[in-house]
């Protein structure tokens, strides 16, 4: 497989002849890349870094860069990546520090979706899925067959047990038990009409007041949704905007925040 003529490859790098290095990639320092591993356009790999076979790095990955740790003083540390992993757009993986054993590592067959961040000294097993925007703080340990759902963040030094799934938007500050389903509290609350925004867009006072009253009834703790809709129809001016809100709620399949 080819090395594109626009790619920049450090003389210290060792690239398997069956690897594929795409346009405008930068491979810097002591980097070893195994057979059939593919770097798509604009991928950045920095050593010391060892990459096994059959990995795919999508555009704008940054793998093996220096850690975001104020204690890091440039000591020699490394990143180790196994086989068959996929790193989607803008994934970042940082190498280790002296305080964490000098190694960040990932096993085999992991899928890291766009904007995932794996911080310094993390130890990640195999067959895991990290959805979009997942963030691992430093020194996190993840087992095998774990699913971290979108926008989840794991505090440094936490452990995620094998075969666990973490719900989207969770902030994990303690260890997650293996084989578990875990989700952090994520209450959403309706506070009323977007008064300032509506006024800026030219909605009149009658419309804004009607929406405010409708949302106040919808958010009442003494009314269920059906009762709230009945009271809105009976007590609130049926402006086109209020009618739109009622229709939106009635079409909802997941329920509406209130």
Can you characterise this structure?
With 258 residues, this protein is of the alpha/beta class. The protein folds into two domains: 8-182, 3 Solenoid (UDP N-Acetylglucosamine Acyltransferase, domain 1); 195-250, Up-down Bundle (Udp N-acetylglucosamine O-acyltransferase, Domain 2), CATH 1.20.1180. The chain has four helices and 26 strands. The strands form three sheets. Strands 1-4-7-10-13-16-19-22-25 form a nine-stranded parallel sheet, with no helix packed on it. Strands 3-6-9-12-15-18-21-24-26 form a nine-stranded parallel sheet, with no helix packed on it. It has an eight-stranded parallel sheet with strand order 2-5-8-11-14-17-20-23, with no helix packed on it. The longest helix is centred in the C-terminal third of the chain and has 14 residues, at 205-218.
Q: How much of the residues is beta strand, in percent? A: 15-25%
The percentage helix is 10-25%
CATH C-level class of the largest domain: Mainly Beta
Q: Please, what is the CATH homologous superfamily of the largest domain?
A: Hexapeptide repeat proteins
Count of distinct strands: 26
Mean pLDDT: 93
Tell me the span between the first and last alpha carbons.
56 Å
């Amino acid at each position: 497989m080819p090395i594109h003529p626009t790619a920049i490859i450090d003389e210290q790098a060792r690239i398997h002849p069956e690897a594929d290095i795409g346009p405008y990639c930068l491979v810097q320092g002591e980097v070893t890349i195994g057979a059939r591993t593919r770097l798509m356009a604009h991928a950045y790999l920095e050593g010391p870094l060892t990459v096994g076979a059959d990995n795919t790095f999508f555009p704008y990955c940054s793998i093996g860069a220096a850690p975001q740790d104020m204690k890091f003083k440039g000591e020699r540390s490394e990143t180790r990546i196994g086989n068959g992993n996929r790193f989607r757009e803008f994934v970042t993986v940082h190498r280790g520090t002296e305080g964490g054993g000098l190694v960040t590592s990932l096993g085999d067959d992991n899928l890291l979706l766009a904007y995932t961040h794996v911080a310094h000294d993390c130890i990640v097993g195999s067959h895991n899925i990290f959805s979009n925007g997942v963030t691992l703080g430093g020194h996190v340990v993840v087992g095998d067959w774990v699913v971290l759902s979108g926008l989840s963040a794991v505090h440094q030094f936490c452990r995620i047990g094998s075969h666990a799934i973490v719900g989207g938007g969770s902030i994990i500050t303690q260890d997650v038990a293996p084989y578990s389903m875990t989700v952090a509290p994520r209450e959403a609350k309706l506070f009323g009409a977007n008064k300032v925004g509506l006024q800026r867009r030219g909605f009149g006072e009658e419309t804004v007041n009607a929406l405010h009253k409708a949302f106040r009834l919808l958010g009442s703790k003494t009314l269920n949704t059906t009762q709230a809709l009945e009271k809105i129809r009976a007590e609130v001016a049926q402006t086109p905007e209020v009618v739109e809100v009622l229709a939106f709620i009635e079409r909802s399949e997941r329920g509406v925040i209130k």
